[in-house]
Amino acid sequence: MSNVAGLTGQLITNAQGQVIGTLPLLVNPASLAGAAAASALPAQGLQLQTVCPQLLLNSQGQIIATIGNSPTAAAPSAASVLPKATVPLTLTKTSTPVLKFTSLTSTGAIVCGDMPTVGQLVSKPQSAVNEEEAINLEEIREFAKNFKIRRLSLGLTQTQVGQALTATEGPAYSQSAICRFEKLDITPKSAQKLKPVLERWLAEAELWNQKGQQNLMEFVGGEPSKKRKRRTSFTPQAIEVLNTYFEKNSLPTGQEITEIAKELNYDREVVRVWFCNRRQTLKNTSKINLFQVR
DNA sequence: ATGCATGAGGT
DNA sequence: CCTCATGCATT
């Protein structure tokens, strides 16, 4: 397992430890933002934009176009890319301390009333977790970690990966999905489904990066798409009330939802969805992630 | 990074 | 109506 590849490139992180950029493996003189990245970086608020040799990005980090092997191929040095000298990098497999979480939620003490409580939502419905699952989870956790590192080493943002994934064949995923996968803010099931996709894509991306560059990352402006309802923004007061209700009962009846909506003066449907999302969020952030230090 | 929305599949 | 997987839009 852990077939990590040594990777170079330095990660730039902010105070929260979040990666906000990377230093290119090789400075690309041709890139516009490249110059900025080369300079010192004392400030913590600076927002660098690492540019992938093959891609032209706009200020939002979105792919505007790809520098293909077109005739007027500029930037002769762009092809340099990483001198496969990746060897020197420590690939300490720092195998994680194997966190066992066997009966993490063996709370069999829940007295079943009729309304599921928050505690019940979080706990396992039945049988304990078996070894197999635990192993799988660890594997995914490792991959997620690696994926992020390798993605950054390629100088790609979550958005770019999402666009590429959408542009190329195979399952398409958005920036949100990439983000959630990296954070494992999803169910184990989703993670297992995503892993192969990302694994495959990443391998290809690294290959393209290594060799010249194929403009397989084609993507023509997305279509208009339907009009989506504007996102409701609850007031802090409303959120407070909703949370209070949720703590009491996370699964209110239609009648109750109607009343709550009336009280807060919000669309009934909006309130219903709020509860749905609240329940879902609670679940997603309590499985794989539960034993993760965040 | 995350909040709300959507839609598919189930009861 | 619910859960789930996802994504658009916003913070």
TrEMBL record:
Main location: nucleus
DNA-binding region: 227-286
Gene Ontology, cellular component aspect: nucleus
Gene3D superfamilies: Homeodomain-like, lambda repressor-like DNA-binding domains
Family matches, as CDD domains: homeodomain (cd00086)
Localization: Nucleus
Keyword set, alphabetical order: DNA-binding, Homeobox, Nucleus, Transcription, Transcription regulation
Domain POU-specific: from-to ranges: 132-206
Source domain of life: Eukaryota
InterPro entries noted in UniProt: HD (IPR001356), Homeodomain-like_sf (IPR009057), Lambda_DNA-bd_dom_sf (IPR010982), POU (IPR013847), POU_dom (IPR000327), POU_domain_TF (IPR050255)
GO molecular function: DNA-binding transcription factor activity, RNA polymerase II-specific; RNA polymerase II cis-regulatory region sequence-specific DNA binding
Residue intervals of the Homeobox domain: 225-285
Homology family: Belongs to the POU transcription factor family. Class-6 subfamily.
Protein name in the entry: POU domain protein
Source species of the chain: Sinocyclocheilus grahami (Dianchi golden-line fish)
